[in-house]
Amino acid sequence: MANRPVLARLAVGAVAAILAACAPPEVRFHASGHYPERLSDWGVLLARRGGLVLGRDVTPYDVNTPLFMDHALKLRTVWMPPGTAAELVNHARYDMPVGTVLSKTFFYPTEDGIAQAMPAWDGDVAGMDLDSARLVETRLLVRQSSGWDALPYVWRGDDAYLSLGGAIERFHLVVDGATAGLDYVVPTRNECASCHATKASRELLPLGIVTRQLNRGYHGSGDNQLDAWRHRGLLNGLPGPDEWPRNADWHGGDSATEHLARSYLDANCGHCHNPESVVDTTGLWLDYATHPMRRMGACKPPIAAGRGTGGRRYSIVPGQPEASILTFRMAATHPSERMPELGRTLVDRRAVAIVERWIASLPGTCG
Amino acid sequence: MIRMTFPLLVTAALVTGCGQPTETTVRPPETAFSAETLLLALETAQPGDVITVPEGRFDFRRGLTLIADGVTIRGAGMDASVLRFAEQVAGAEGLLVTGSDFTIEDLAIEDTAGDALKINGGRNIVVRRVRTEWTNGPDTANGAYGIYPVQTENTLVEESVAIGASDAGIYVGQSRNVIVRNSRAEWNVAGIEIENTVGADVHGNVTTRNTGGILVFNMPDLPQAGHSTRVFDNDVLDNSTPNFGAPGSAVASVPAGSGIIVSANDRVEVFDNRIAGHRTGNVLISSYFSAGYSREREMQPTFDPYPETIFLYGNTFGRGGQAPDRAELDAVRTALYGETGRLPDVVWDGFRNPEKTGSEFAICVSDGHAEVLDLDADGDYAAPGVDGAAHDCEHEKLPPVRLVSL
Fold first, then answer.
1. In this structure, what are the phi and psi dihedrals at residue B112, rounded to the nearest 5 degrees?
2. Interfacial B residues in 181-220 facing A (CB < 8 Å)
3. A191 touches chain B (CB under 8 A)
4. What's the pLDDT tens digit per position in B192-215?
5. Contact (Cβ atoms closer than 8 angstroms) between residue B165 and residue B191
6. What is the spatial distance between Cα A222 and Cα A241, in angstroms, rounded to a whole number?
7. Which of A240, A307, B333, B385 lies at a CB distance of 3.0 to 4.6 Å from B246, suitable for a disulfide?
8. Where are the alpha helices (DSSP H) in chain A?
């Protein structure tokens, strides 16, 4: 609903034609208040000759446990100004230099033009064929001297266009063989801030740039990303690998139920449900830290869940996933019932099954 | 629209060779105010902005979010400027605000999927002549809260109207320094609810045709325990709508026909209200044990489940307590007062804090003939009764809430 591509569309043909013949683009940083309408003007990521091209020194990366976004696959990249590096403050916080541009592009593989839900992709940017992919949106997080800014861009043809008010994209998606209409919701700029912000400072922070998420090889291959970043001089202050926490590899590398479940809750819920967030109004902490089980929801009554309780009494009833609010909200689709509130309209069935298995394994009873 | 610089400045790219594009600026013609206009004004708002919503009906498919401080949203009247969300597919609120120094006035928010107006964490909040409504009337499928400031400080809700919320019409949670006045809450499960809030004045309101009129609650597991609420000069009348709250939610346990409920909160002063027409009871005072989680005896060690230092005076009571919406209460009524009798104006579950037995923690009632019935819920209703002397006392009156810098 918030797209204004009309004016910008004028130049699409010219850009595509001219850039197609050129070397990797240079990343160009833009000051706050002067953000370009077209994603290509950042030089981070271009659609060219039916494929995607990354800008010079733009590094793709991957996380262990992705945030579920209606089965979209994601290409994440980081770029820092030449000669600068991220500083590790602690494993949950990296200070990135002013001028950093993080991007996350949401896309679906297509068959006969219809988007398909796939569990993962191989991370091969150069090998991506845009004739068999639907690019939906690219979110930028750009580090200004005043802090991070979130910028949603929505793809239209060969470029994506700044859409501060987000968008609701209607298309069909095939999930487990069934085709259904999807209202894909691109977040607004302010909605980005509502997930990424801390309570005390209202400061917006990247979510995936933490040790437990980066601690892996890129799509399971090559060096550990943290080692690679360190060796390339992109990351300072990292302690030895023995101390690196690691979320479960949801691409298939892990199978322990508790680790998968806790990692999923950490990545999909814990950015809001933690003691430092505005969501401490709920008293429910789901980040991957050491919390008493009560704080994680065991035998904890809801505060302001409304119909989000699903008629259930406690966030988690040990041993009884069918009586737990947590799994009800994960499996719900109505906007007033589902969790997370933003970021999905469909249900992540695999995640629901794993969290149910975890709750079923918990000892104890309520009341 | 006062300020719409950024969203209407569209940058087009001009590409020269293989170099980076240069930017030019194109200003499109002014367009009529639309839902999109408001969405973008909120997305790009800066401190000091006054966003004017003209008369009209504006339809939204997603919730609105405001994070900037110092913004005013001003409509042309709560029946003239209407934000409608019946087709909402995204967002758990109609409007979510996380900024401080926020004022919203003279508009309506209708038929949101979840909460209508949620204000999370700001200071110096004014909600004035705002109507939140689910236009289909009471329905479990309605959103939970109408006007919902939570973790705010210095908050004024006045001359507003809240209708049809499946939890509370006006719900102030975990806040400090709050005034809710001269407002109307109707056809909600809870009309006005003050929860885990420190320092609230609730006065001059009309709560009618809710399940419960005015609730002052404390819930466990939250960063702040509430105390010091004054409920005075309200009309609390005929709150007997059957409970349509979502099962499992805190208010789902509110019996139909409850006037004022104080649960697990301390230092609550209820005075000069007009309370009538509540078949369960005009005033109910309960511990957390009776608030729907009666089997739940384990809770965080710091949580105080008992209502303490409660003071009622100067209230005018009408009919009430003649047909409680709970079998155990109705059994007590029949046993003590006969088939046609009614419960006293103040009904207390009788759970006592064994460590706070002094008179300074008592429930004091100096309301003429009003009596306090001790249900003895703690003893499975074995020995309910009225002990006039135990409640014939007074507490020091609470100071008025003063809103700083409003």
1. -75, 155
2. 219-220
3. yes
4. 999 999 999 999 999 999 999 999
5. no
6. 16
7. A307
8. 5-9, 12-19, 189-196, 211-214, 225-231, 257-268, 325-330, 349-361
Which chain B residues are Cβ-neighbours of A197 within 8 angstroms?
67, 98
CA A53 – CA A47 distance, rounded (Å): 6
**Number of residue pairs across A and B with CB atoms under 8 Å?**
213
* B260-299 b/e (C-beta count within 10 Å ≥ 16 → b): bbbbbbbbbbbbebebbbbbbbbbbbbbbbbbbbbebeeb
> At residue A150, what is the residue type?
A
- CA-nearest of B265, B260, B253, B289 to B275 is B260
pLDDT tens readout for residues B270-307: 999 999 999 999 999 999 888 654 445 455 678 899 99
- Residue B80 to residues B40, B52, B137, Cα–Cα distance (Å): 21, 13, 20
Q: What is the pTM of this model?
A: 0.89
Q: Predicted ipTM?
A: 0.86
In the numeric block, which tokens belong to residue A193?
């801030």
Handedness of CA A99, A104, A105, A109 (dihedral sign): positive
Is the torsion defined by CA of B278, B279, B285, B287 positive or negative? negative
**A157 and B CB contact within 8 Å:** no
Residues 6+ apart with CB under 8 A from A117: A71, A108, A173, A174, A175, A176
Instruction: Tell me, yes or no, if A313 comes closer than 8 A to chain B by beta carbon.
Output: yes
Of A11, A165, A335, the CB nearest to B88: A335
CB contact under 8 A, A335 and B28: no
Q: Cβ distance B270 to B298 under 8 Å? A: no
Chain-chain contact of B144 with A305 (C-beta, under 8 angstroms): yes
pLDDT in tens, A298-335: 998 888 888 889 989 899 999 999 999 999 999 999 99
Q: Smallest Cα–Cα separation from B273: which of B287, B283, B281?
A: B283
Strands B90-97 and B62-66: parallel
- Inspect the interface and report whether the beta carbons of A283 and B14 lie closer than 8 Å: no
Domain boundaries, chain B: 114-391
Nearest by CB to residue B66, choosing from A37, A190, A280, is A190
Task: Give the distance from residue B11's alpha carbon to the nearest chain A alpha carbon, in angstroms.
Answer: 5
